[in-house]
Amino acid sequence: MLDRYAVIGHPIAHSKSPLIHGLFAQVTGQAMTYEAIDGGADEGGFARALAAFRAAGGKGMNVTLPFKLQALVGATQASDDARLAGAANALRFDGDRIEARNFDGIGLVRDIEVNLGVPLAGKRVLLLGAGGATRGAVLPIARAGAARIVIANRTAAKAQELARELSPHLGGVPLAGGGFDALAGESPFDVVINATSASLGGEAPAVPPAAFAPGVLAYDMVYGKGLTPFLKLAQQAAGAARVADGVGMLVEQAAEAFAWWRGVRPDTREALTRLTVPLV
Ligand code: ATR
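# 2'-monophosphoadenosine-5'-diphosphate complex -> structure
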């Protein structure tokens, strides 16, 4: 029987993971299957689906909304990335063990550094939003050697709280958190990442134009939405802004999970080409 993998979420029909992992299996010549499982809306649905998949011999799973927290809680082992993110997006099953990882932040860093060619070492990085997406990104950005990380959020207290919680784990990389107005006291940033859900509602977070350094990389974590209001704002604020959406983050986090499961890192170019929507 072929090794089985899956993505679990609710809803799940929109997930690109089966397409991405199908391409990875092709390009690496790995004999495996990858399916989408709907964990349902009722309490206990996730745990039941997980148990059934493991009992049927499943080897690993990607986890998406709304089960990322449950996936971490139910694991027998978790990486620092998953623990600090407070969420798991990949599981690996080995006998009685359920290992949890979170590759979202690592995928983001890999996309920025490798695909977009912007090394984060020594850079000033601004993260907009103080939810799960920011929480998962901070540690990998610090590990990449950023000079300073600032979290700015509509609700200032949430950003302050998150910065306080994560600061001790960043190996000395300075981290601050506050409202958008607190950015007035900061020098401009080399990389500005929109980790809010504002783009989904057709809005841009209220980041002041002075926060964008000339030649800034503006990165929106949403994907497939073209030039979002945030990316437009960045282009207006800094004439020579480079803009990117989150398609590369999606593909690279999948590649990390694939490599963890199969021991071979897939070439991501074909998946990136297939999923990229022009930023216009
Ligand atoms: P996720 O897990 O995807 O990060 P979340 O935990 O719901 O999602 O967090 C959403 C983030 O987007 C929050 O930081 C939220 O700001 P608040 O904490 O002030 O609610 C932010 N957000 C959502 N809509 C926004 C908007 N229109 N402008 C600015 N920030 C917005």
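# post-check
The CA atoms of residues 27 and 267 lie 7 Å apart.
The chain is about 35% helix and 20% strand.
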